[in-house]
Amino acid sequence: MDSYDDRGVGDGSGSGGPGVDPGSDQPLRATPPAEFAGAPAPVRSGIAGLSLPYQIATAIALSVIGMITCTHLAMVFLHVAPSNTLTKQHGKAVDDWVYPEFEQNWKLFAPNPLQQNVAVHVRAEIAGPDGRRTTGWMSLSVEDSRGIRGNLLPSHIHQNQLRRAWDFYLNSHDVQNRPNGLRGNLSERYIRRIVMLRLGEHDYGGTVERIQVRSEVRSVSAPPWSTEKISTKPNYRVLPWWTVTPADLPENTKEAVK
């Protein structure tokens, strides 16, 4: 019986096995199929598909764009961030970058809490059977506080109406109480109507002829553990006397007068 080796070598017309040339000691190389013999090389896309000079130019351009973007984001962040060491040292550079094209009207964090207590007072000149008399100052803010304390669902009127009306007035008038535009006249009429609406809840024994409004501002005292010295002395801003007109009266009062 012939061995495996005898069968592989003794046959003059046989092959020496797959991948082996019978007349050579070197193994045969696999021949690719005909359909893949002329296949083109894969096409590169993106930056890799550009020539070397264009690749360098593109990389430089992207680097410059990235640096400008990071610088812009940093400047806007410092602009909207609270005051800190960087903004104090480089505030002018930040403002020069942001204004006017990239002006921001918001802040990164919530604004500082109010550090002052503001109360709105009113007094009136009453024309009654005994002649004219002037009432004492009445705090409208205290009346709002009474409607809020102990109330699980306080009304929007008690919480915000008077406060926002007073802020509206201050923002639309100068320190001499002169209106600085059309909104100034609107804010004055708004304050007068609110005051007359509140005074209508009280019986003064006569007709309100004139009213005067003032604000009382007191700084919030420092906590017991703080060594900061804060004056809690009140500061007043007194508005001129206003003569009451029919436009200042609530609708039901206007009908009664008619």
Automatic annotation (TrEMBL):
<keyword id="KW-0472">Membrane</keyword>
<keyword id="KW-1133">Transmembrane helix</keyword>
<feature type="compositionally biased region" description="Gly residues">
    <location>
        <begin position="10"/>
        <end position="20"/>
    </location>
</feature>
<dbReference type="Pfam" id="PF19136">
    <property type="entry name" value="DUF5819"/>
</dbReference>
<feature type="region of interest" description="Disordered">
    <location>
        <begin position="1"/>
        <end position="37"/>
    </location>
</feature>
<feature type="transmembrane region" description="Helical">
    <location>
        <begin position="54"/>
        <end position="78"/>
    </location>
</feature>
<protein>
    <submittedName>
        <fullName>DUF5819 family protein</fullName>
    </submittedName>
</protein>
<keyword id="KW-0812">Transmembrane</keyword>
<dbReference type="InterPro" id="IPR043857">
    <property type="entry name" value="DUF5819"/>
</dbReference>
